[in-house]
Each structure stands twice: as structure tokens, then as C-alpha cells.
Amino acid sequence: MDQEKVTQSFEEKRPVLRVIHSTVALFVIAGLIYISGIQQYFFYQKTPAALEQVVVDSVVDADILTVPLTVFILINNESDGSKRSNENTKHLIENASRVWSQASIVLEIKNLYRISTSDEELENFYHTPGVFIRNVREFDETTINVFLVGRLRGINGIAFSGLQSVAVADITTVYDFRALAHEIGHILDLNHVPAVRERLMFQGANGFLLSLGEIIQARESTEELFIRKF
Q1: Which residues of 199-208 are buried (b: 16+ CB within 10 A; e: fewer)?
Q2: Which range has the worst mean pLDDT, 30-39, 100-109, 124-133?
Q3: In 10 A of CB 219, how many CB atoms?
Q4: Mean pLDDT of 119-142
Q5: Choosing a second label site near 213 at 20 to 30 A (CA), which of 10, 118, 172, 223?
Q6: pTM of the model
Q7: What's the chain's average pLDDT?
Q8: CATH 3.40.390.10 applies to domain 47-228
Q9: Rounded to whole angstroms, how far apart are CA atoms 105 and 115?
Q10: CA angle at 215 for the pair 180 and 225, rounded to the nearest 5°
Q11: Are 138 and 98 in contact (CB under 8 A)?
Q12: How far apart are CA 14 and CA 190, in angstroms?
């Protein structure tokens, strides 16, 4: 009799156990997909070469400020090197600059370099960016230093504010120029904003709008970093 009750209880619980097992299996599979990098094929892609960011009218009656950039295309024939051409890179900067036109700020390439790197060296860049960046001979403290790579271990871009540098991947979940404009925003002392996907400083979307407060802050930081300082 007791055995019959145990068997009946187990049979009643079997559907619940199946659901639990299925849920655990889904989490394991999702984790393996992420670790293996297969997610790149579903969520990450190159921004179409012909895509143009609309010019956003300035919302301030002020002089145009220039943010100088030193751009490094970190290239190799392995998996993590950037595959950008110089022409594509210039188009990237032009589109990002159009985003910043609403603040009467222009992004301007001061120098553009193609630097050969290995995936091993890029791995060091991911883990110890400060060491990598300080060893780049052409690093220019009078500019924002932009490093372009193939992949950034699952993120679109990153700002190294203490090093006045940013990195942007070739393959992103948002438009690459939006990622660049966003990271430059961090260098100009802007923080992330919640909830509003239309804003530039919202994470993970293609918004590009700046608030008046952000524009004022970005212009003040631009003057401090690139006009008054030098």
C-alpha cells in the first residue's frame, strides 16, 4: 500500500519535474550558446555601409566646438582584428559627428593609423587596456583616442575615461556610429540614462537625442579637455 502511494505521488509530480528539467536545460543551452560566440550570428552584425545618420539641428545658439580624434584601426588576419577600411572608418566618424551636431560639436579626425595586432595582443587589450593603450606610440593626449577592433567580447563599445580613449567593435547590436557617439559622450562626462530609448546615453538602442543639460555638460567638457587645457 505504501509503495502504491509513493508510485502515485511520483506520477503526479512527473509533469512538474519535466518542466523543471526543461527550464534548466534551456538555461544551460543558452549559456553554451553565449560562451561559444554563436550569439554573434543572431544579435550582432555590421552596420550597413550606406546607412546615413540624419543631421540633427543644433539646439543651442553657440559656436561650433571641435573634438579632435586619433583613430587606430587594430587589424589582423585572425578573428578579432578590425576589418574596416579607411573609407569606412571616415564614414563612421562622419555619422557619429552628425549625432553630435545637435550640440554644435564636430568630431574631426586628427590622425588615422592602421596598426597590426595579433588576437593575443587584443586579448591583452580587453583585460589590461591601460597597459595596451600606454604602449601605443601614436597615442595622443590632446585628442580622444578611438580604437576600432573586430569584436569586444559581447559589447558594442567601451569608454576608458581615465585614458581619454574609447573602443568600438566592427560587429555590434546597434549602429556602430551610434555606439561611437555614445562612448564619446562618456568621455565628455555624460552618464547613462534609464528608460528612454530615444536618448543617446541609453544603453543598447539606436537613440541619438541629447537633453539640453547633456549638451551643456558636453560642451563644457569639450572646452575643458580640448580648448582651455591646451
Answers
A1: bbbbeebebb
A2: 30-39
A3: 18
A4: 94
A5: 172
A6: 0.82
A7: 87
A8: yes
A9: 28
A10: 70
A11: no
A12: 53
